């Protein structure tokens, strides 16, 4: 059985990906994660004792550690999820985003290049480095159009700029050294195990806690939502069938304004866990100061991955959102333990902290 090294596997998408892959009983997984505030081993508690799974605590920018790990586990594939992922936090403190997303990706690429260069011919030919990136590198759209793989990079936040820099490094390692890399640029994910600083879990937990639901600006900013398992399936398709050196955009074709999303969460909660006073959770919506530099609209053209790799999302938005909201209501322990000591629903991203 071959081994895949997954970085950032204790986070939202990484933990869903590891569970999805291990369920197929075809590879061993080594998960390298620094366990920042966003990484949580509780998200993997059901697979901790799986003999095909190993956890290593460490940072991707720790070159000796990564070199040693590659030497010991001899992975056929590296999947790089590790990142600082929250736009608001990048506005308050960009430094850690530069360190993890740019320096970290660079060090991981260096370790991968050295490992790949000295690998036996069979391993060398089959090796893949897959870099998980975001649609935010393309900047903001006007009222029409979608991002394709040919769209120009125009990142607007420190987060997206750091991801764009990493994407360029990944590309350069293919062009210059021939390292077999693939990059995916995906739209907004939703689903179980997402840290409750992000829109959907934050609104769900704040609503049932009787707190305000802060919608930035006029609520008209639009995102293209994809259920996390559909993202995991897309990454697997890219790994197995994608062409090294290529970029694949991934998106759900579910474009919604933020206000539509918050309304949908409130309406679901009205049915699943009604307020005691009989009013709708929509009453708790408040419009608050906008995010600085807030991108207005994202929409992804996923035609290339559909045509070339035969991937299509399976989840409908209505059912996926229902599963997500039910998951948060049904997992208060995970929510409590994940948030403990690190985040209390306070407003982030106004850029007022030095
Ligand atoms: P997340 O914040 O939930 O998880 C990130 C994980 O990386 C955490 O477990 C954290 O502990 C770990 N990590 C952070 N710094 C590290 C380091 N230096 N070394 C090792 N591990 C480290 O993020 P996510 O939402 O799961 O996103 C995963 C990846 O997918 C990111 O690269 C992100 O840019 C990308 N992405 C996310 C979305 C989305 O909607 N969430 C969409 C497109 C792309
Ligand atoms: O597009 C892909 C990106 O999606 C990923 O690369 C990022 O890692 C991921 O965090 C996500 O970025 P967003 O900034 O789009 O996600 P967030 O959940 O922070 O915000 C979604 C939208 O909701 C955005 O327009 C800001 C708005 N928002 C967010 C919060 C937290 C609110 O209106 N109120 C809020 O309280």
> Could you please say which CATH topology of the domain at 3-192 and 226-255 and 293-314 applies here?
Rossmann fold
Low-confidence stretches: none
Helical coverage, percent range? 40-55%
**CATH arch. level architecture of the domain at 3-192 and 226-255 and 293-314:** 3-Layer(aba) Sandwich
What name goes with the CATH superfamily of the domain at 3-192 and 226-255 and 293-314? Answer: NAD(P)-binding Rossmann-like Domain
CA-atom Rg in angstroms: 20 Å
Main beta sheet, described?
Answer: 7 strands, parallel
Widest sheet: strand order? 3-2-1-4-5-6-10
Distance between the termini: 49 Å
- How many strand units? 12
Descriptive key words:
354 residues; alpha/beta; Rossmann fold; 7-stranded parallel sheet; 3-stranded mixed sheet; 41% helix; binds nicotinamide-adenine-dinucleotide; binds 2'deoxy-thymidine-5'-diphospho-alpha-D-glucose
């Amino acid at each position: 059985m071959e081994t895949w090294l997954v970085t950032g596997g204790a986070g939202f998408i990484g933990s869903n990906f590891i569970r999805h892959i291990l369920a197929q009983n075809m590879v061993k997984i080594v998960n390298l994660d620094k366990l920042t505030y966003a990484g949580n081993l509780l998200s993997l508690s059901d697979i901790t004792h799986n003999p095909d799974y190993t956890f290593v605590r460490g940072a991707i920018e720790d070159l000796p550690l990564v070199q040693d790990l590659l030497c010991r586990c001899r992975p056929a594939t590296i999947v790089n999820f590790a990142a600082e992922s929250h736009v608001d936090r990048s506005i308050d403190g960009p430094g850690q985003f530069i360190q993890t997303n740019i320096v970290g990706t660079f060090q991981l690429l260096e370790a991968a290049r050295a490992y790949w260069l000295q690998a036996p011919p069979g391993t060398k030919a089959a090796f893949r480095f897959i870099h998980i990136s975001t649609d935010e590198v393309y900047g903001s759209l006007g009222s029409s159009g979608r991002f394709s793989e040919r769209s120009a990079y125009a990142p607007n936040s420190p987060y997206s700029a750091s991801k764009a820099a990493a994407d360029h490094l990944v590309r350069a390692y293919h062009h210059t050294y021939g390292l077999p890399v693939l990059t995916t640029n995906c739209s907004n994910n939703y689903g179980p195990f997402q840290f409750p600083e992000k829109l959907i879990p934050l609104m769900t937990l704040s609503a049932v806690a009787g707190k305000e639901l802060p919608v930035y600006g006029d609520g008209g900013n639009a995102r293209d939502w994809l259920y996390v398992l559909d993202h995991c399936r897309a990454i697997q398709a890219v790994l197995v069938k994608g062409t090294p050196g290529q970029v694949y955009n991934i998106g759900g074709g579910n474009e919604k304004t933020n206000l539509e999303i918050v309304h949908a969460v409130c309406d679901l909660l009205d049915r699943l866990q009604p307020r005691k006073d009989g009013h709708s959770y929509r009453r708790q919506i408040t419009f608050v100061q906008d995010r600085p530099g807030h991108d207005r609209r994202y929409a992804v053209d996923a035609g290339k991955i559909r045509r070339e790799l035969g991937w299509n999302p399976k989840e409908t938005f209505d059912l996926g959102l229902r599963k997500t909201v039910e998951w948060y209501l049904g997992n208060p322990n995970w929510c409590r333990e994940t948030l403990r000591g690190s985040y209390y629903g306070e407003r982030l991203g106004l850029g007022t902290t030095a």
